[in-house]
Write a structure and sequence with these properties.
Rossmann fold; alpha/beta; 2 domains; 5-stranded mixed β-barrel
Length: 489
Amino acid sequence: MQDVAEFVLSPEQAVDRLEALHDAACAALRRALARFVETGVPPDAAERAAFRYPELRVRWEPRGAVPFTRRAWARFPAPGIYATTVTQPGDFRLYLLDQLRPLAEEFGAVISVGPSEQEIPYPYVMEGGDELKLGEVSAAELARHFPTPMLSAVGDEVADGAWEFGEGRPRPLALFDAVRVDYSLKRLQHYMGTDWRAVQPWILLTNYQRYVEQFVRWSLAELATPGGQYDRLVLPGGALVRRGDATAAAEATVAAAPWSRFQMPAYHLLRADGSAGVSIVNIGVGPSNAKNVTDHLAVLRPHCWLMIGHCGGLRQSQQIGDYVLAHGYLRRDQILDELVPPEVPVPALAEVQVALQEAAARVTGDRGEALKRRLRTGTVVTYDDRNWELRWSQERRRINIARAVAVDMESGTLAAQGYRLRVPYGTLLCVSDKPLHGEIKLPGAASAFYQRAVGEHLSIGIAAIDLLRGDLAALHSRKLRSFDEPPFR
């Protein structure tokens, strides 16, 4: 990249230049691919040098008193140069400006942009269907002449605290560089069945399709409400339901959506004013799925993800249909033990806890002791083994020591991922059975429970999001950030 002192840019100018460089690089790569498919002529070294991500650099050399801020992000841990490569800057424009403006205005940081040394892998410039045009050319042929995805270049060293400072090297400006982001954007489309651009910053994660069905019913009702705040629903497969669509047509569009083709089908309700809407993702069952989807959702830098699903109640006093607000996690999922060792506490976030409890009170109409009878706060134990009951004699003591009140297979993983990847998180579960007390999920009782509980539970999750919208500065908590964090949240 050119000398950081050569082009001093405002945040707006910096994002404009990022867009221009990224667009030019992608266009050059697409042209070279099309020519190679048509004529067999590969790009030469000079052409290939154009297939590079733009790099964003920020230099901070404090003079005088260092500005004080209680904000958890857009601040510098030390003087120096910070850098990251950037992809899709047009779609990340608002996020980039939110991060850059305080650095420039409060800290006087110098911003510059130029080409990086990081090549753009050719699959990342292709939209859905474009890959069919390469059908006559083998992947091996393309790999000889074009940049390809290399797993050795994709990692979470910054997020996991494994990045080491080296003299003469810039510090990381963000948790994820461009190639890591592009990798996840493609995976999101594969798993969810929708364009990643449709994913909203407020995310509900569930382990039951019935929650998704209830979300769709609620979304259609919102779209049919005169003067409502939402204007369209994006479905798996890419179809849209828009405000003003006839009821029968909207329902037919939803029914035709091929959600079952996708491993983690997602639905996205977008707001009419362009501000943050709500997405719901059926992540399925188990900690592996929970880690997988959040590894990829994290690159979008969402405001929050909330787990709303079912759990087994572990206390005799609990009733089927009661709620559990997790304030701690006994992590027996094992999937993150190397990245976030089990002895590392995963804290509850006060802002999320308060919002979930207040939302429960508003939706149920219960307050005080009446609410306490229905909503239990406590530790949730998360297993990787659905049949953990078969080793009850081994697990009994650990559950007792933890004072656990509920058991599931996703919540601890999702909380640990939020902690690890700096995304605010929370868990509100609904007791669907009591495995230790003989109240198992028989088909008839389960069906009645689902009909009664799912709608109310979903409403609580949505109400909590509405409560959290108003104070993003507090939500993006310092609890999630270490002493040597990158400036970008």
